Amino acid sequence: MKRNSCLVIGYGSIGKRHYRILSELGQKVSVVSKRKIEVPDAYSNIELAISSEKPNYIVVANETIEHEKVLRTIEESGFTGKILVEKPLFFESPQSTFNFSSLYVGYNLRFHPIIQFLHKKLRNKKIVSIQAYVGQYLPLWRPGADYTKSYSAYSAKGGGVLRDLSHELDFLQFLFGEWEDMVVRGGKWSDLKIDSEDHISLIYSTKMVPLVNLQMNYLDHINQRFIIVNTNSETYKADFMNKTVQINDEIVFLESDRDYTYREQHIAILNGDKTHLCSYEEGMQIMNMIYMAEQSIKKKEWVFNE
After folding, report:
1. 148 vs 32, 196, 240, 250, CA distance in Å?
2. What is the pLDDT of residues 161-195, one digit of tens each?
3. Are 229 and 147 in contact (CB under 8 A)?
4. Which of 89-98, 125-134, 220-229 comes out lowest in average pLDDT?
5. Which pLDDT belongs to residue 142?
């Protein structure tokens, strides 16, 4: 892989991770941050950073609510390289479209060994039902940080489990196709000091599966992320915490470090391998699913992907 000029926009926890991983991959990395940071080649202005560094790869890693504005600035700068936007793509659907030729969304769990394993094993199987679950106690997400001041705590900043934990929406779509009809229940029910939703439960069907049951929350004091897939002859239980996939009585161990999926995602983008990347169009499909889920909660009725 050749050495590229990379620009990371945003230097919170996820921006720092992208900066570190790209640096470890031997890339030249600069940063745009509103804060004064101790990083070489740091800028406070996107236009200046692009004109000075001439990047061919940009990672947008600031708050979700700022993504549309940042992409507009990048577009107006004349940038024609590759872009990765952290998930979710936007807070809400943008006012107009973008014309980037290589824009991807940071659903890096597509690269997790468990998802890759399921993608290969289930490709030609008839799926009867799926249960998926993800939960983690929000105050423990970011050690040393006050959760009440994080974007996750505020609906207006793009917080809430529906957007924060939308990895599940994406990798279930990646594995099993787009949703068709859906009913959702959720809200802010705990005593967490937040105004965003802390628990969501979705029941829906896809083009490939008649029943998907997905629960997402900020509440679990026992970190959990798993998928159970039933076919007519097999049950697959994929446990991300224990790094295992159980198929009936057989258990397969699939090891990976915490940076693995981010690293593989960057390598795929820089090498031009689109096979498992989330495209702009797929990112917008997830945005539509989030919007329709919110409509289902509000109206207390089934919604349809028409």
Report:
1. 25, 11, 27, 43
2. 999 999 999 999 999 999 999 999 999 999 999 99
3. no
4. 89-98
5. 85
The residues near 20 (Cβ < 8 Å, ≥ 6 apart) are none
Spatial separation of the C-alpha atoms in residues 218 and 62, rounded to whole Å: 21
Give the pLDDT of residue 126.
97
Q: Is residue 164 within 8 Å of residue 152, measured between CB atoms?
A: yes
pTM (predicted TM-score): 0.95
Q: Residue 92: which CATH number?
A: 3.40.50.720
Quick check: bond before 88 cis, omega within 30? yes
Single-letter residue type at 16: K
Total domains, the chain: 2
Query: Which of 105, 124, 147 lies at the terminal end of a domain, its last residue?
Result: 105
Collect all residues with Cβ–Cβ distance below 8 Å to 226 and sequence separation of at least 6: 132, 133, 237, 238, 239, 240, 241
Alpha helices (H) in 38-166, listed in sequence order: 46-53, 67-76, 113-121, 161-164
Q: Examine residue 267 and state whether it is found in any structural domain, yes or no.
A: no
- The mean per-residue pLDDT over the stretch 264-287 comes to 97
